[in-house]
Structure formats: C-alpha cells, structure tokens
Amino acid sequence: FCRWRFTFYLYIFTYGVRFLKKTPWLWNTRQCWNGYPYQPLMPDLHYYYIVELSFYWSLMFSQFIDIKRKDFGIMFTHHIVTVTLITFSYVTNLTRVGTLTLCLHDAADVVLEAAKMANYCKCQKLSDLLFLTFAIVFIVSRLGIYPLWILNTTLFELYEALGNFPALWVFNVLLVILQILHCFWSYLIVKAAYKAISKGKVAKDDRSDIESSSDEEETVPRSKTLHSTITTNGTSGSNGTNGYLTGGTCSEEH
C-alpha cells in the first residue's frame, strides 16, 4: 500500500507544482479572487480536483476496513473535513485557493511514504533521516506556510476583495478546523522526532496501541512485535496510528 500511496502522492504533487507554476495566483494570492465568481474552470484544474477528491474518498472508506485505532475519530474527522472542503470549494468555484491548499498538503506526504518504504526495506538510517525531513516539512508547511499563505488570503484578502457572503464563513470554518488538526499532529510528530534524536532512532509511540483485537496481539510471536512501523494517513501498523506518526526499525504490516 505504501508504494501505491507514494506513487500517487509523488505524481499528484508533481502535477500540482507543474500546474501552479503557470498560474498567477501561485505568486500573488490576491489573484485567487480576481473575477470571482466568474472564473473559468480550466480542464487541468478540473482534473486535479477530481483526482484528489477520488483519492480522499478512498482513504475515508479504507479506514473502515483497517484496524481500528485510538485516533480513528480524529482521522475520520480529517477525511470528512477534507472531502467537504474539496467538494464545497469546487461547487462555489473557490478552486484557485483550493489548488494551493491541495499542493501544500501533498508535499509532506511524499516524504512520509518514502520513509515508510525505507523502513520496510530495513534501511533504518535512511528511514530516520526521511522521517526527520518529513517532520520539518510538515511543521513548516502546515504551521507556517498554511496559516500565513492560505488562511491569510481566505480570512483577510477574500473579505477585502468581495466583502461578506455565507460561503466565506463556511469555507473558513473548515480551513480553521484543518489547522487545529495540523496542530494536534504536529505535537505528536515533534514528540516522535525528539525520541528519534535522543535515542538515535525513531521510537515507538505508546499512544497508538491497538484498541481492538487485544487478545490476538498476545498470541503473536515476540519476534513479530519487536519493531514498530511508520504509518500514514488512512493506514496503520502494529504500533502506529492512522495519523502522522512513526515507529522503530521494521515490522510486519498488518
């Protein structure tokens, strides 16, 4: 699964960068609101949205066939907010700022999936390096660039350009909820990164024990439970979570 997700994230992030390089709103976010709501829906933008929406729908459904985690509710909330944001921005033609948000979020996921693959290949040093890189990219993009770039234009520049209207508040409430989730995951990532640096490897996250199938865990041979996995959005390992956390060297994927 991680190879498929890595391929998808790499492709869609590359596609998003190539698309946005040709747009004026990448360099000037005020261009997101010029001519709104009568902005043409370009074929490339339409394709970008449909592919991203399909992927996040798949994550939401796959969570129900995954092993249930303690952060199931948080991850489900994240998927609901994401799908709602993509759909709402498409329907209300807030797609320009939507493309910026999608591309920004895909950047960290590419690195995380690469770290997972290195972990499964037993390349511990590479896995740890990629995880620390992921932690930096995640925090910079979601606690720095996201509020200063995305929230700034939707909360202030949009209001200055078009005034008050109902869709503005719905859109911004969803974006702020997403930012709250970013803060929560950043705390967990910093905690895991600190363990990685202090112990010389990515340590187990004891918050993410499996809620279900506890009896089955006790019967698993110890050789299969010595290590923990790096996990990502919508997936899980024996000691991982459905969120953005990492574990130790290499393990069996559930």
TrEMBL record:
Bilayer topology: Multi-pass membrane protein
Keyword tags: Membrane, Transmembrane, Transmembrane helix
Domain TLC: start-end pairs: 1-198
Pathway the protein takes part in: Lipid metabolism; sphingolipid metabolism; Sphingolipid metabolism
Stretches that traverse the bilayer: 46-65, 129-149, 169-190
Spans annotated as Disordered: 208-254
GO cellular component, one term: membrane
GO MF annotation: an example: sphingosine N-acyltransferase activity
Subcellular location: Membrane
Top-rank taxon, per record: Eukaryota
Official protein name in the record: CERS6 synthase
GO biological process entries: ceramide biosynthetic process
The reaction(s) this protein catalyses: sphinganine + octadecanoyl-CoA = N-(octadecanoyl)-sphinganine + CoA + H(+)
InterPro entries (alphabetical): Lag1/Lac1-like (IPR016439), TLC-dom (IPR006634)
PROSITE patterns according to UniProt: TLC
Presence of the UniProt keyword Membrane in the record: yes
Low complexity bias locations: 228-254
